[in-house]
Fold:
Amino acid sequence: MAKEFHNDDVVLDIKDKPKALPWLGLSIQHLFTMFGATVLVPILVGIDPGIALVSSGLGTLVYLTVTKGKIPAYLGSSFAFIAAMKLLMSTDGYPAIAQGAITTGLVYLIVSLVVKKIGSAWMDKILPPIVVGPVIMVIGLGLAANAANNAMFNDGQYDYKFLLVALVTMGITIFFNMFLKGFLGLIPILLGIIAGYLFALLMGIVDTQPIIDAAWFALPNFEIPFVNYEPKFYLSAIITMAPIAFVTMTEHIGHLMVLNKLTKRNFFQDPGLNRTLLGDGLAQIVAGLVGGPPVTSYGENIGVLAITRVHSVFVIGGAAVLAVILGFVGKLSALILSIPNPVISGISFILFGVIAASGLKILIENKVDFDKKKNLLIASVILVIGIGGLYVEAGTFTLSAMALATVLGIALNLILPETSRSEKA
Structure:
C-alpha cells in the first residue's frame, strides 16, 4: 500500500491534528474571516443571520464528510443567489428560497453523477496553466474594488477614519505575519482583526449598543419543512435558482484549483470532482432544509490557509462547529457582527492578494510563454473581464464576472490555434 502524501513544507498538513489551544485559536481565526460575508447575505435577503451561521457550519461538516476529510474548504453563504433570493422572498417568502436551494443542490448531485460516469481527465485539457493561473488571479482580485470601497466609504461618503483603520489593520497584520513565531505566528489574521477592532474602537467607528442589547442565548429562526411551514411546489423558484448552480460550479472548480496549488495535491482526482460536487450539493440541500441561504466555498478562508500554511481539516471542522454554536449565542454573534467594514477590508487586502499571487506563481512555475499570442490573448481576456466586473444578466439570472471570465478563457484555449498566422515562419 502506497504511503499517503504528506506536505512537509507547511505547518500543519491536511490530516494533521493541532493541540487543543492552538486548535481553538486557528478555528476562531477562520470563523472571524468568514463571518462578515456569511451574515451579510442573509441580512440583504431578510433571513436570520443566526440560522445562516448554523447552516454554514452544518454545510461545511457535510462537505468535509463527503470528501473524506481530504479538502480544507469552508462553506459560507453564497452571494451568487442574492438577487434571486430577494425576488423570491418578496413574493413567496422563505419556503420558495428553500425549494430553490434544494433544487440547486440536486443539480449538483446530477452533475456529480455525470462526472463520476465520465471521469475528470477532461479537466487537464480545458484547464491548462494559461487558464488556471489568470482565473485564480481573478478569484483573488475580483473583490479588490469592493474591499477598497469598504475601506474608504462610510454610507457613501469618503471617510479618512475608515481609510486609516483599514491601513492600520493591514499594517499590523503584515507585522504579525513577519515577526511573530510559535503559536502567535499561526494566528496573524485573528490577531490582526482583534488589533484592528481595538483601533476602530479608539477611532469611534464601532457601535457597541447591539452587543449590549443582545441576549446571551438566541434560538435561530429555523425554517424546517413540515415543522415551520407546509411545503408546496414553486416553479418560479426552480426556474430562478437552478441555472445559477452552473455559475457556482465554476467558482467551485476555481477554488479547487487554488487549493490544489496550495496543498500540492490534485483534488479533481482524489477524492474526485464528483465527490466535491456531491459534498457542495448536499451542503446546499442541508442549508435549505434548516432555513439558511445556499452555501459555497469561501476564497477568504483559502487566503487564510495560504498565509498561515495551516491546512488541517480539523481546524476547518472546528470553525464549522463554532459557527453552529455561535448561531445560538446572541452576544458573540453581535460582537463579531460589530466588526466594522474597514477592519475586514484591511485583512482582505492581504487575503485576496495572496490568492492572486498564487495564480501568478502558477504561470511562473509552468513557464508560460507570453511571447505566444494565444497565451497573451487568453490571459488578457480573463484578467480584464474578471477583474473589470463584466457580467451577463438575463432576468434574475446573472453570470458573474469570474464565471464569465473562466468560460471565455476555456473557450479561447479550445478554439484558438497554438500558433497565429503572423507567428508562422
About this structure: The first strand starts at residue 75 and ends at 77. Residues 57 and 323 are 5 Å apart (CA to CA).
